[in-house]
Amino acid sequence: MNDFDAHQMSWNSNEELAERMIPHIGALHRDRGVVTSIHGQRLMGLSTTGIIEAHEKASQLGHSDLALDETLAVLEKIRELSPHTASIDVARLVSERPADAELEGYLREQLAEVLNGSEPAPERDVVLYGFGRIGRLLARILISHAGGGTGLRLRAIVVRKGADNDIAKRASLLARDSVHGPFEGSVTVDEEKNQIIANGVRVQVIYANDPASIDYTAFGIDNAIVVDNTGRWRDEEGLSQHLQSTGVSRVLLTAPGKGAIKNIVHGINDSSITEDDSIVSAASCTTNAITPVLAAIDEAYGIVQGHVETVHSFTNDQNLIDNFHKGDRRGRSAVLNMVITETGAAKAVSKALPQLEGKLTGSAIRVPTPDVSLAVLHLTLERPADRDQANDYLRRVSLHSKLRQQIDYVESAEIVSTDFVGSHRAGIVDGLATIANDKTMILYVWYDNEYGYSRQVIRVLERMAGTHPVVLPHRRDVRLEG
């Protein structure tokens, strides 16, 4: 047999194994609310080639080789055990299993929290107030999570009616996205009931101009969390209007909050959310991207001071062509110019990491790309840093630590911004760009300022609703080595 035939046989064998995984992945999510992943990459919805690719990537960046037959065996056994709602990293279960451990006994020990009478997560109604870039991505994520029948339930969107065929246009924008591609599934409309139907999920479209006068209970919605995506109100007085509507209990703002509103970066200070916090902010995309990385560096080296330069994709508040704009410089064409603008992200970090109060400055440049941004962190440290040591530490943080959902790490001389469209992580450290010279460190952190941020918003929503799944195996603390 020549090399070509051997490789083809190997591929066919892997394809068969991946095909056999798909029913188990789907049933665990649909019937048990269990999300499976390979080192943080979700398996749900992947094709056979996507599953194979996830396994191939597992051998990169220090992962041990992961055989598809091992993954299949673990998935089959997990399905037999019928756990309740959880996020389970199959790759870590495989790699951390002792050589002499019997599979079922080992899995029963690792998954004990979600076996033996555990209860599924409670359901909670969610309303999206505003249906722009972030609102539609949140809708996509919530709809994709709906199969398990537990957790967050998207019930309605609230918008101002823009045209007679408004609902058809809203549905079309949900189904088609120039940056993030087509919606995975079907999107139709029920014009008589004013509903968008996406993969069987009926989403009520409510037309309103006043956030304080909506009776959500008339649509069967109660105790809802309203996610305000408009950015129109950012203080407690403005956002509390939502709480005056019938059927609303809490509000989440997808922009930096002002005054006493807690600005939450999931993974950093989400544990500070209490039942008494009726209004919470998910901070900004940039704050979510840089805060976890800064937290990891501060823990390992100590940060004396720093400057954050954000190279940010243009946003909808800029003009496509030169025209009047109340903001400085933003009237000039977003697609033709780099535009210097302000950012409060550096100062906002201290709301999640108080130890960095007064230590960071920030500035921003808007550039002619529609999505994915880059933050350059120029830091002065308390303790000297070595480039390889720092990169190894950040790589391990991205793989094993409690910040694994927030931080990713890459090493590629060919990677560019569009390669990060759709990233689930808040920020991705570009290891090849790292500079470390004694007590000076410069880090380059990519982030999908739309989708990566939306994932963080969902995590905050889950924390507010008490539906955030148990993550297994448990993540561990990662320390600087050397």
From TrEMBL:
Residue ranges that the Swiss-Prot or TrEMBL entry lists as coiled coil: none
Q: Respond yes or no to whether keyword Oxidoreductase is given for this record.
A: yes
The EC number of this protein is 1.2.1.12
Cite the GO molecular-function annotations of the record.
glyceraldehyde-3-phosphate dehydrogenase (NAD+) (phosphorylating) activity; NAD binding
Fetch the Gene3D superfamilies from UniProt: Dihydrodipicolinate Reductase, domain 2, NAD(P)-binding Rossmann-like Domain
InterPro entries xref list: GlycerAld/Erythrose_P_DH, GlycerAld_3-P_DH_AS, GlycerAld_3-P_DH_cat, GlycerAld_3-P_DH_NAD(P)-bd, NAD(P)-bd_dom_sf
UniProt xrefs under Pfam families? Gp_dh_C, Gp_dh_N
Record's keyword terms, sorted: Oxidoreductase
CDD domains named in the record: GAPDH_I_C, GAPDH_I_N
Q: Where is the Glyceraldehyde 3-phosphate dehydrogenase NAD(P) binding domain?
A: 124-285
Q: Which family does it belong to?
A: Belongs to the glyceraldehyde-3-phosphate dehydrogenase family.
Name of this chain's protein: Glyceraldehyde-3-phosphate dehydrogenase
Source taxonomy lineage? Bacteria, Bacillati, Actinomycetota, Actinomycetes, Micrococcales
